[in-house]
Amino acid sequence: MSEILQVKNLKKYFKTSRGMLHAVDDVTFSIEEGHTLGVVGESGCGKSTLGRTIIRLQPLTSGTVIFDGISTDDRRMSRSELKAYRRNMQMIFQDPYSSLDARMSVSEIIAEPLINYGVYRSRDELWKAVFELMDTVGLARRLANSYPHELDGGRRQRIGVARALSLNPKFIVCDEPVSALDVSIQAQILNLMQDLQQERNLTYMFITHNMSVVKHISDEIIVMYLGVVVEHASADSIFEHTLHPYTKALLDAVPVAELGAKKSRSFIKGEITSPIDPKPGCRFAARCPYAADRCRSETPELRELLPGHQVACHLAEELDQST
Amino acid sequence: MAKTILEIKDLAVQYVTDEAVVEAVNHIDLSLEQGESLGLVGETGAGKTTTALSVMQLLPDVSARIVSGEIYFEGEDLIRISPAKKREYRGNKVSMIFQDPMTALNPTLSVGDQIMEVILLHNRISREEAKNRAVEMMELVGLPGERFNDYPHQFSGGMKQRVIIAIALACRPSLLIADEPTTALDVTIQAQVLHLIARLKEEEQTSLILITHDLGIVAETCQKAAIMYAGEIMEYGTVEHIFNNTAHPYTEGLFGSIPNLNRKVSRLTPIPGLAPDPAALPRGCKFAPRCRYATPACSEAEVPVYEIEPGHLVKCLRAAPEGRSGDE
Questions:
Q1: pTM, whole model, 2 decimals?
Q2: In this complex, how many residue pairs, one in chain A and one in chain B, have their CB atoms less than 8 Å apart?
Q3: A182 at the B interface (CB within 8 A)?
Q4: Residue B37 φ then ψ, to 5°
Q5: Which pLDDT does position A129 carry in this prediction?
Q6: Of A183, A251, A254, which is closest to B43 when you measure between CB atoms?
Q7: Which domains does chain A possess?
Q8: How high is the ipTM of this complex?
Q9: What pLDDT is attached to residue A181?
Q10: What are the tens digits of pLDDT across the range A218-264?
């Protein structure tokens, strides 16, 4: 298997009036072609910024991203360079209510990327491509001239998927693609995305806050907290052999639709701390029930504790043995 | 037998617009005992919030119309009492926690003043006493009393929801309606807030109606559950009935749609199609067009409610005594 995306020491900082906001802080990972990497974390953990930076919707502060042989770093990219870099990657956005241009019809929205990249020879060919995309994502052809406001959330998200697929990309960043949808519709979209992945050997980076969804869809999972990766492993390993106290807390907090599924529940107290000019030490230490002095002074590195299972916690071994 | 605190009978609510009449709630019956917690589950447009607003008597005057029904709360029909009396019990004996903590608070008043407001409105006490009660409430929900004079924008989402819970519980209501109280919050904060609601409910013996789309929350917080679809209650029972002896195809569909943390399925089984347009509801069973068990009989006439075991109500022809034996 080959790695289609490599991210090395990626940093994205934002200047604010109160200091430097470390949205993504030294993140390294790679994704194999045809796989799904799930990125989970709560609001403000940097997961969306990570996705947006990889696709170069915003420049990165430092680090390298190599996608399909083309590399990008902190230098400015020209329009044509960006166009080449993004040719094979796409994004599906969270909110199907605000990510579609309200003044464009369904067919215009889906056709736009095809027109931008000039990948059709005639109008007939363009329309044929648009209709085929609508079939692929399960949108009735009669909706071609409708406008987004006439459609429900599930159908709108199908437009988003069709648009993302239009250039036949290899890699799609999916930023909370089902969070705004009702559960029955959410399941329809998740199944559609899985089918498309199998047919087209797509690679996904699936950003979500929903632990059940991420478990369902991912091969590998990254757990983020305040801009850093705290745990990275295969989906099975993360859920069966959870190592980081934050991942444990996240899993504990999810209500399960089964009676008696949760016997005990440990709460983590407090709320996420500020990502502005973070002090050295573990970023989760302020809320961690196990935090020791070392955790507040020395930043834990991401290290491999089990084969293919990385964790950034000084106490991971001790905690692993005690549970 | 515990005392019945709320009884909804044959409630039907419509929204009337220039273009259409939207049938939001269609002849539902529901009752709640003192100290009981009921989960009202359904997807967007199922009529959950409209039901809650009917109980609160907060439906918008211009567009909403209660077509039929009675809502008895502690023996009185809330629909037919005077506006002055409505004001007396609203926020006092029955109160509501709204979905979005970011917009439910007044940005120009300090949170302390907002908690005090409801206390002063319903009690003949001095400002001094009211302030003490408000600080007590803040501490009860886990907010430091020193933040009495802070404004909503100085609080995070989870903290704001605590302020709203403090306001809702300030007059020790006998019924609390929580409309998606944690949907806007992160999971770790959601766990804290749900725990808080459950604890306070226990301490105060408050009855609770929890509106949610998340069956996980119902499993953990509620004793009874009502599954709503297109303005009707499709299935009603204890959580054991709903989770362990699921009877309605829609409830079954909901369970098939959610990925479960404890089990691995390679593929979800979503409910096909879309929820019906509430301005043009199908005849007969509202769920029939999406139901995999549907027969022509389902769309012929209004489907009755069957009690398939004591306290377990199902609005589906498959639950009819003669239909059940032939199954499986």
A1: 0.88
A2: 121
A3: yes
A4: -120, 130
A5: 95
A6: A183
A7: 3-88+169-322 (3.40.50.300), 98-168 (no CATH)
A8: 0.84
A9: 85
A10: 999 999 999 999 999 999 999 999 999 999 999 989 988 888 776 56
pLDDT of residue A265: 65
Contact A281, A297 (CB under 8 A): yes
Residues of chain A contacting B188 with CB distance shorter than 8 Å: 42, 249-250, 253, 267-268
Pairing of strands B37-41, B21-33: unpaired
Q: Which residue has the tokens 């200091």?
A: A19
Position A323 pLDDT exceeds 80: no
Q: What is the C-alpha separation between B31 and B233, in angstroms, rounded? A: 12
Q: Quick one: which H or E segment has residue B255?
A: helix B249-257
Under an 8 A CB cutoff, do B220 and A262 touch? yes
As given in the structure block, the two tokens for residue B207 are 């009855």
Task: Report whether B313 contacts B236 (CB < 8 A).
Answer: yes
DSSP state of A286: G
What CATH number does the domain located at B4-93+171-260+267-325 have?
3.40.50.300
Residues of B in contact with A234 (CB under 8 A): none
CA–CA distance, B150 with B154 (Å, rounded to integer): 7
- What digits encode the pLDDT tens for the residues A100-147? 999 999 999 999 999 999 988 899 999 999 999 999 998 999 999 999
Q: Do A154 and B274 touch (CB under 8 A)?
A: yes
Instruction: Check CB contact under 8 Å for A209 and B186.
Output: yes
Best mutation target among B185, B194, B220 (most A Cβ atoms within 10 Å) is B220
Any idea where the domains of chain B sit in the sequence?
4-93+171-260+267-325
pLDDT of residue B264: 75
